[in-house]
From TrEMBL:
The chain crosses the membrane at residues 85-107, 213-239. It comes from Hemiprocne comata. It holds the Pfam family TLV_coat. The keyword Signal does not apply. CDD domains: HTLV-1-like_HR1-HR2. Gene3D superfamilies: 1.10.287.210. The keyword Transport does not apply. Keywords: Membrane, Transmembrane, Transmembrane helix. It comes from the Eukaryota. InterPro entries: TLV/ENV_coat_polyprotein (IPR018154). This is ENV2 protein. Signal peptide: none annotated.
Length: 269
């Protein structure tokens, strides 16, 4: 490698050379502009430097054994459990547990609905009792007021009952109207809740409520039925995939045998 000095660059400029072109297939690598196919002598800064390099792509060579090993990926060392009776039993148990969980959730929702109905019935009884109590209080107040008016008439000459007793007169304030309004609002909410319960009940919840023995029957049959349905849907695809996998492994084994036994002969000219 020959170093191009500053004096030579100035000489080339004087000879009207404008570009410094590297050898065929090479590039300039400069400290200020990086990789470039040519350098302009008019703008070249002599305080920087450039190196002529040949860029070669990275090549990786692998032997045939290494390629086959990478392609196979260690076949034969992977352990897979065959589809035995244990696997089938596990799937059946899993399906039964899933079905039982779904049925249990339906039963749980039915119990919550029954509890809500019982609470609504208790609230209705309390509302009826409070209404009867308010009626009794109002009737008692009417009796007391009637007696008060009678006594005022008897002690009219003395100025009334309070003057005769020389006590402060008591006044009755009726709050039963507020109680009636509260009970009417409670009755309205209970009716709305009852209507929501009747409209929100699904057909299968009504079915389970009418026939409780279906819970036990479906718990026993749901798992196998779901498994059989899944087998009918995905079984052909799984069998096809397994057969294709076996066929590919046989083809690879045949190719390896043919490759190991192949003998090359020169073709006569």
């Amino acid at each position: 490698n020959e170093t191009i000095r500053e004096t030579r660059i100035k000489q080339k400029k004087n000879e009207t050379y404008k570009w410094a072109i590297p050898t065929a297939g090479a590039k300039w690598v400069c400290s200020d502009i990086g990789v470039t196919p040519c350098i302009s002598l008019q703008v070249f800064n002599v305080s920087q430097f450039c190196v002529q390099v040949v860029i070669i792509p990275r090549l990786m060579y692998h032997s045939m054994e290494d390629v086959m090993h990478r392609f196979e990926g260690g076949l034969g060392r992977q352990k897979r459990e065959p589809f035995t009776a244990i696997s089938l039993a596990t799937l059946l148990i899993a399906g039964g547990v899933g079905a039982g969980t779904g049925i249990a959730s339906i039963i749980k929702s039915e119990q919550m609905q029954a509890l809500q109905v019982a609470v609504n019935e208790d609230l209705m009884r309390i509302e009826q009792s409070i209404n009867q109590l308010s009626i009794s209080v109002k009737s008692l107040s009417e009796v007391a007021l009637q007696n008060r008016r009678g006594l005022d008439l008897l002690f009219l000459k003395e100025g009334g009952l309070c003057v005769a007793l020389q006590e402060e007169c008591c006044t009755f304030i009726d709050y039963t109207g507020i109680v009636k309004d509260s009970m009417a609002e409670l009755r309205k909410r209970l009716d709305q809740r009852k209507k929501d319960l009747e409209t929100g009940t699904t057909w299968y919840e009504n079915w389970f409520s009418a026939k409780p023995w279906l819970t036990t029957l479906l718990s026993a049959l749901a798992g196998p039925l779901i498994l059989a349905l899944l087998g009918l849907i995905f079984g052909p695809c799984i069998i096809k995939y397994v057969l294709r996998f076996i066929q590919e492994r046989f083809d690879i084994a045949k190719l390896m045998i043919l490759t190991s036994r192949a003998e090359y002969q020169q073709v006569p000219q």
